[in-house]
């Protein structure tokens, strides 16, 4: 193998770039900009001057012209800017490399949280991907978030990290061999994909590690990492595994020593030299003991390697190494530090807003707590940064416990008292993961765990269940695998024993689903699948057993479906979908009913969104089967629409649209009424507009325009009728006769100018003037009785009553309260004719969408009562050729006379309260009723609109 090709193949990865701050528009006397040139636990960072002007500018210069791939900013815990803009600067060809010669291009900006939720005790680490080339990086730092701790309106940055590649030849982003000098590299397929990852950014370059790791431990970790890569290339896999486990241990040790170093420095600043001396002694003893426990000289092969040929895997980083400690003079200078791994999800970049790849909240070391004495327990409230257990596929697998003669579990380095007890060095045999058949016992279970797992212990034994409760994840995985094998091998015949084993296995499955380690979680799903698809049919267990198993595990699966790790979420949701297709589970309909149970609105957005996506997938895959109905899904949807997270409502809205497309109008029964008030809400408006689109209706804006045109046309007709009415009034007063003698025929349009009905409506809640639509009314003549005593204003055109008090105001009051031919609509409060009340409710009323017409009695029935009304068939049928009263529901004589006799006669409608008032009026108040009523029968009057 050509070692030069290996070296070039590995150096293509982006890495940390060395830089220095060359310009700052302001700085505090103690927290200067030069603090940003170095990364360590003792870094204080930069702070702006007190009461400075914003924005503040800062320029950093890279050692060489580079391609920037990632920028990291660690902000202060309470001196926090609202946002930071980034500009990349480059120097034109031929120009000197000076700050004044730089030309800048804007990359975008990031916003920072105000940190109120953490109580200003943690720091925010922003990481963003960029792709730009230049010599300079300029930061434009905007005004600060206001809080009670920031007394002088300052901003602060603890550290800046830039990751990228130095350019070794003219920049061409489309060139895949941008940084490769050797043309033979791409011709070696054996190494393809092993170390050549052009877009991969090593976790060793992460800023979080640099700020929290002891420098000496960091150089050792780097050395071990290089040794591990060398061992892989030489196929020394056992040695590589030992190195991997040692790196995991040293990461925890380095974090703890880094914190102790900060505490020692704080003690010096406080002039507490006794405490500082004690910290130094503790650190030295702890460091030396760890080196002995790990047998570091053997791991580094300082006593002689079995493969002495050196393989230079990566170039040396550009920062200056610290002085080697006296105990490890033989160690080489450090090259890079290894941070804890954090899973990141790249997002597309924007021209203005830089998409944040990751945002981490990192605890600050201030204020400090006393570290424990050698015989005391730690009282520190600051926890070390550790690798999440669920990310074991990307981070080194934790080493197995090293056991002493008394079989007690090994205590991890970061959990020991200081100084730690002497432990024997690790050996390769002790590092191998235990296998179920090796008869290795896990650590003893506590009394609480023994009581909790008593049923499982009775079935599977204490040894196996102890492994399921072990702190070592490989033991937990092996326990589930052993249960899987044991359940498969169980013979048929004893159903009660099978039920007991199922219950015990489900108990262990629940623990496995909740496990943070992905391998254990996968093993639990594998066991659960076997139980539902093989074990249950094989032993012919009934629906109660299956229902119990599903109900016990679904809450755990729902919780896992909202996990922070993407693969955990996807696997949990996929398994729930798979469960729904199992014949045994599908027959119980339990899963569907559990999925569509409305969740609490306090449920977190991620968990709520997962629940909604599960219901959506179930509906898409199975439709209204297996326990899913329109009723239970829509009740779930309506509750979900009330969630305060937009991503949750988006899923629900998408599901409702799909269901309406498939099922139509019944979906609307679960939603608010489709009216103007509802459509003011954006969510409802979008839904109802989609419904209109599906139904083929024109957009509501077009309907409004058409309605406005109809209203204008109707108003024009009313105006014409008002003009005719005014002409009649003038003729009765004698004006028309005089005008006729002098000027000829009367122009009704001229007379209407003085129409008193045109005056402004009164503010009191009473009816407007009647808007009359006479049909065939004969003009009054001199032969009519007492025509000189009455005018048109003195007559009610509906009931025919004459009264001198029937002026415009008097008629309004009569229509509103007394006329027996009229009534107030109970929904919109308008005054309408009783004869046309049903048509009004169904076609004109504001609440018309809430009513349907009964095909039997032809009356307007509220929609919630409609189905029962039609099914009962208890209503009085409407007979053809007769009128049907909406008050007493009886059929009456046809025509206008039939209505008047029914609504005004002595033996008429008993449900019309105004009829008795009209009959009991004094005789003088209704003078001339007979003559006028007879005239009124000449044509049917129209409807009256009253004020709401």
TrEMBL record:
Listed under GO cellular component are: centriole; cilium; spindle pole
> For bias kind Low complexity, which ranges apply?
920-935
Q: Which residues form the TOG domain?
A: 446-700
Where does it localize? Cell projection, Cilium; Cytoplasm, Cytoskeleton, Microtubule organizing center, Centrosome, Centriole; Cytoplasm, Cytoskeleton, Spindle pole
Keywords of this entry: Cell projection, Coiled coil, Cytoplasm, Cytoskeleton, Repeat
Q: Which Pfam families match?
A: CEP104-like_TOG, CEP104_N, CEP104_ZnF
Q: Which domain of life is it from?
A: Eukaryota
- The primary site where this protein sits is other
The record's region (Disordered) falls at 314-347, 387-421, 694-716, 735-785, 920-948
**Alphabetical list of SUPFAM superfamilies matching this protein:** Galactose-binding domain-like (SSF49785)
Q: Where is the composition biased (Pro residues)?
A: 321-337
Q: Function of this protein?
A: Required for ciliogenesis and for structural integrity at the ciliary tip.
The record describes its quaternary structure and partners as: Interacts with CCP110 and CEP97. Interacts with ARMC9, TOGARAM1, CCDC66 and CSPP1.
Q: What is this protein called?
A: Centrosomal protein of 104 kDa
- Give the source species: Biomphalaria glabrata
């Amino acid at each position: 193998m050509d070692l030069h090709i290996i070296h070039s193949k590995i150096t293509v990865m982006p890495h940390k770039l060395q830089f220095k701050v060359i310009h700052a528009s302001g700085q505090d006397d103690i927290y200067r900009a030069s603090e940003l040139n170095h990364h360590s636990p003792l870094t204080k960072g930069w702070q702006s001057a007190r009461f400075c002007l914003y924005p503040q500018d800062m320029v950093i210069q890279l050692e060489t012209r580079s391609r920037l791939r990632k920028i990291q900013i660690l902000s202060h815990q309470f001196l926090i800017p609202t946002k930071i803009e980034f500009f990349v600067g480059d120097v034109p060809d031929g120009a000197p490399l000076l700050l004044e010669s730089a030309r800048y291009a804007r990359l975008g900006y990031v916003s920072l949280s105000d940190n109120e939720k953490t109580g200003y005790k943690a720091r925010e680490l922003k990481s963003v991907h960029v792709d730009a080339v230049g010599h300079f990086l300029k930061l434009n730092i905007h005004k600060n978030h206001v809080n009670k701790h920031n007394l002088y309106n300052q901003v602060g940055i603890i550290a800046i990290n830039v990751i990228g590649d130095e350019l070794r030849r003219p920049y061409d982003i489309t060139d895949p061999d941008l940084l490769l000098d050797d043309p033979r590299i791409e011709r070696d397929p054996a190494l393809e994909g092993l170390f050549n990852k052009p877009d991969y950014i090593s976790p060793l370059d992460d800023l979080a590690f640099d700020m929290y790791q002891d420098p000496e431990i960091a150089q050792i970790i780097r050395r071990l990492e290089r040794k591990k890569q060398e061992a892989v290339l030489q196929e020394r896999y056992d040695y590589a595994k030992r190195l991997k486990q040692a790196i995991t241990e040293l990461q925890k040790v380095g974090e703890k020593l880094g914190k102790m170093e900060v505490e020692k420095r704080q003690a010096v600043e406080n002039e507490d030299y006794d405490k500082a001396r004690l910290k130094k002694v503790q650190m030295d003893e702890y460091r030396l003991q760890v080196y002995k426990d790990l047998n570091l000289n053997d791991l580094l092969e300082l006593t002689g390697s079995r493969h002495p040929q050196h393989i230079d895997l990566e170039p040396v980083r550009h920062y200056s190494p610290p002085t080697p400690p006296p105990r490890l003079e033989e160690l080489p200078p450090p090259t890079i530090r290894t941070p804890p791994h954090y899973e990141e999800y790249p997002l597309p970049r924007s021209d203005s807003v830089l998409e944040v790849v990751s945002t981490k909240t990192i605890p600050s070391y201030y204020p400090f707590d006393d570290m424990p004495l050698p015989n005391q327990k730690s009282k520190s409230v600051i926890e070390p940064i550790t690798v999440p257990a669920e990310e074991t596929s990307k981070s080194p697998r934790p080493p197995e416990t090293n056991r002493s003669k008394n079989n007690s579990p090994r205590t991890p380095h970061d959990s020991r008292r200081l100084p730690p007890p002497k432990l024997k060095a690790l050996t390769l045999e002790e590092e191998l993961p235990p296998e179920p058949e090796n008869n290795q016992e896990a650590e003893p279970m506590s009394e609480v765990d023994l009581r909790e797992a008593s049923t499982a212990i009775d079935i599977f034994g204490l040894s196996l269940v102890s492994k399921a409760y072990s702190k070592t994840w490989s033991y937990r995985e092996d326990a589930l695998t052993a249960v899987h094998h044991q359940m498969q091998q169980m013979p048929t015949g004893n159903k009660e024993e099978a039920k007991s084993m199922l219950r015990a296995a489900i108990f262990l499955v629940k623990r496995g689903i909740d496990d943070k380690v992905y391998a254990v979680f996968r093993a639990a799903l594998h066991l659960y699948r076997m139980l539902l698809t093989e074990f249950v049919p094989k032993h012919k267990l009934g629906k109660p057993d299956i229902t119990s198993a599903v109900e016990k595990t679904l809450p755990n699966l729902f919780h896992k479906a909202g996990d922070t790790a993407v693969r955990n979420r996807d696997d949990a949701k996929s398994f729930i979908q798979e469960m729904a297709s199992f014949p045994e589970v599908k027959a119980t309909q339990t899963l569907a009913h559990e999925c569509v149970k409305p969740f609490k609105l306090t449920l977190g957005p991620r968990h709520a969104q997962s629940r909604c996506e599960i219901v959506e997938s179930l509906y898409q895959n199975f439709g209204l089967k297996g326990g899913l109905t329109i009723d239970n899904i829509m009740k779930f949807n309506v509750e979900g629409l009330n969630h305060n997270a937009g991503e949750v409502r988006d899923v629900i809205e998408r599901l409702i649209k799909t269901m309406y497309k498939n099922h139509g109008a019944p979906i609307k029964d679960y939603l608010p009424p489709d009216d103007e008030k509802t459509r003011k809400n954006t969510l409802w408006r979008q839904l109802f507009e989609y419904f209109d689109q599906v139904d083929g209706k024109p957009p509501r804006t077009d309907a409004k325009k058409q309605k406005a045109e109809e209203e204008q046309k109707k108003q024009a007709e009313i105006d014409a009728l008002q003009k005719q009415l005014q002409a009649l009034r003038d003729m009765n007063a004698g004006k028309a006769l005089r005008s006729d003698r002098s000027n000829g025929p009367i122009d009704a349009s001229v007379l209407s100018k003085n129409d008193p009905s045109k005056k402004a409506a009164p503010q009191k809640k009473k009816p407007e003037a009647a808007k009359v639509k006479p049909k065939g009314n004969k003009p009054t003549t001199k032969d009519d009785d007492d025509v000189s005593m009455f005018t048109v204003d003195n007559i009610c055109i509906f009931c025919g009553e004459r009264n001198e008090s029937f002026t415009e105001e008097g008629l309004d009051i009569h229509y509103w309260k007394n006329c027996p031919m009229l009534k107030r609509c109970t929904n919109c409060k308008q005054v309408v004719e009783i004869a046309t009340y049903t048509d009004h409710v169904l076609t004109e009323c504001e609440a018309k969408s809430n009513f349907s017409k009964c095909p039997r009695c032809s009356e307007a029935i509220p929609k919630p009562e409609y189905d029962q009304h039609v099914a009962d068939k208890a209503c009085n049928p409407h007979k053809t050729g007769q009128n049907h009263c909406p008050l007493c529901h009886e059929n009456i004589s046809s025509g206008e006379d039939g209505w008047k006799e029914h609504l005004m006669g002595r033996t008429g409608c008993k449900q019309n309260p105004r009829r008795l008032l009209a009959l009991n009026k004094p005789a003088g108040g209704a003078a001339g009723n007979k003559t006028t009523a007879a005239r009124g029968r000449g044509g049917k009057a129209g409807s009256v609109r009253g004020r709401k």
